[in-house]
Amino acid sequence: MLRTPLWLRQGAFALLCLGALGLEPAQAQRQATNERPTDFLSADFHKGRRELLRQQMPAGSVAVLFASPVRNRANDVSYIYHQHPDLYYLTGYTEPDAVLVLFKEPQNLGGQAGITEALYVQPRNAGREMWTGRRLGKDGAKQQLGLQYTADNTEFAAAPITWSNFGQVLMLTMPADAANDPRNPADLHDLVASFRQKANLPADFNPAVGEAHKMIQRYGTANATELRPYLTNLASAQPQLATDAYVQAYLKAESDADRQKVVTSRPVSRFDATTLDELLSQMREVKTPEELKLLRQAVRISAVGQQEVMKATKPDMGEMEIQGLHEYVYKKYGAEFEGYPSIVGAGNNACVLHYETNDKPRIGNELLLMDCGAEYHGYTADVTRTIPPSGKFSPAQREIYELVLAAQEASFKECKPGAEFQAPHKAAQAVITEGLKRLGIIKTDAEVRRYFPHGTSHYLGLDVHDRGTYGPLRAGNVITVEPGIYIPEGSPCDKKWWNIGVRIEDDILITPSGYDNLSKEAPRTVADIEAMMAKSSALDDFKLPNLKN
Q: Where in the numbering of this chain does the Aminopeptidase P N-terminal domain appear (predicted)?
């Protein structure tokens, strides 16, 4: 990559010559031109999401959402910018230093009447755009994204929004780690600071307090036996909860009647960091047809990646090389990113749940776990397959693999509308518990957590662990089903099981009548995996020069 010239990075000379352009490290912004894919979510989609959210906001309220921070990787190099998923969901805007304001009732803003939405964006700047890519600017945001009112972010501090007029100010947890660039008067740090000052947000405002208050409101009487110890543990780690009068009054209440009195005496605050979170979780957990189109593409790309890597994998390959093959397939099919750091672990590395180092130089004949997902236009897949690099499972590997496969099949049967979210996990855990006991790996049910320590499902979408309520499954939910067994070296069982880690993960759409396995193109059964690995690969004849001296 081109490095910003020294004379642009150093002090007074740069300020004198370029009028304090304040060039920051390249952020790989998408070009605001027609030379890009045409299957992104439409402006109408994002407009519909904004309007649906606004309809559900309380009367007299205003909502404010900030962009994600630019994050430094090293020295003057930033990580590729990734927009806050909620802001992207509501606007389609992919650039930093932005803030979206939604009004429940129409407002007068900037001389315009009837305004219900305002997006403040980074202004056009020819000098910066030469290095970091073209910006939409306020006119581009209005034309291409269809926002009702747009303005430069430099106008946000003086925006004619009288925050005190609103009965409720809805927000998400605001970024606390945004760097303050003295050359940029409207970076994210300054936008947040302006909001705090103009809205008169208390300096000690803590979203965790509001969340605790809401939990007391919702569960304070019917679920006191579970809520009280939970809040006690939470308060031990959160000083503000330990001193909050409402939380402490609830914890000190001795009877249901006393607790009910506390529940009904919740203190009122204009600032609300829980309602917006809940509304967005409800919206994002049910995918629209437009979203499902992108999710299906992300999952299919990832499933084909698993197929191609199965055909190409050999025992003398390294974990990083195999990671590269997955990610090459993603790029080949137009997926911009990985949805999360690829997990490619052989042998004992497969027993590390979020193993990301991927630096074992030779995988050998130990089982290889590959948890990889393409991100296509913001939506991410999450597909895991476990394969034998030799092309054939050993007897011990096969027994563990087929136990996990049986657990996954049991989970699939629970994937239907109305089932509790934990139903797939409970089904998988029951199968794995009985199977491990049968194999002599554990003796009691409680021991299963040693070898199956994680849940089986999470929502999938703009985030790999996507927003959702975790209530009963609904048509339009996309969830993972990913049971696993991990037996690291040194485990208290027969050594023949050591260094076996197996996870099988598929991406499941809940339909009105059941489910659809979106990742079914990736082989799952022992027979199908071994058959796929026996096929020739397009990469078999791809040879690079030997760099060793």
A: 41-181
> Amino acid letter at 269?
S
Pairwise CA distance, residues 404 & 60, whole Å: 52
Tokens of 460: 């999938």
> Distances in Å between the alpha carbon of 410 and those of 406, 455, 481, 520?
6, 14, 10, 16
Distance separating alpha carbons of residues 163 and 270, to the nearest angstrom: 10
Q: Give 187's contacts (C-beta < 8 A, 6+ positions apart).
A: 96, 97, 178, 179, 180, 181
This prediction's pTM: 0.91
Beta bridge partners of 329: none
CA distance 150 to 406: 54
Q: Computed from CA positions of residues 263, 269, 274, 280, in that sequence, does the dihedral angle turn out positive or negative?
A: positive
Six token digits for residue 530 = 């071994």
Residue of 452, 415, 450 whose CA lies nearest to 430 = 452
Residues 6+ apart with CB under 8 A from 45: 92, 288, 290
**Cβ neighbours of 115 (radius 10 Å):** 16
Give the tokens for residue 495: 């050594």
Largest pairwise CA distance in the chain: 80
Residue 294, CA atoms < 13 Å, CB-side half-sphere? 22
Of 114, 92, 94, 111, the closest CA to residue 103 belongs to: 114
- Domains in the chain, start-ordered, CATH in brackets? 43-199 (3.40.350.10), 207-281 (no CATH), 286-534 (3.90.230.10)
| Residue 422 to residues 364, 426, 428, Cα–Cα distance (Å) | 37, 6, 10
Tokens in use for 296? 């299906």
Residue 456 in tokens: 């089986």
Phi, psi at residue 435, to the nearest 5°?
-65, -45
Place of tokens 């690099």: 389
Q: In a structure prediction context, what are the per-residue pLDDT tens digits for the chain, which is 549 residues long? A: 544 443 333 333 332 233 333 334 333 344 445 678 999 999 999 999 999 999 999 999 999 999 999 999 999 899 999 999 999 999 999 999 999 999 999 999 988 999 999 999 999 999 999 998 999 999 999 999 999 999 999 999 999 999 999 999 999 988 888 999 999 999 999 999 999 999 999 988 888 888 888 888 888 888 888 898 999 888 888 888 888 888 888 888 888 888 898 888 888 889 999 999 999 999 999 999 999 999 999 999 999 999 999 999 999 999 999 999 999 999 999 999 999 999 999 999 999 999 999 999 999 999 999 999 999 999 999 999 999 999 999 999 999 999 999 999 999 999 999 999 999 999 999 999 999 999 999 999 999 999 999 999 999 999 999 999 999 999 999 999 999 999 999 999 999 999 999 999 999 999 999 999 999 999 999 999 999 999 999 888 888 898 987
Residues 6+ apart with CB under 8 A from 280: 53, 86, 89, 172, 467
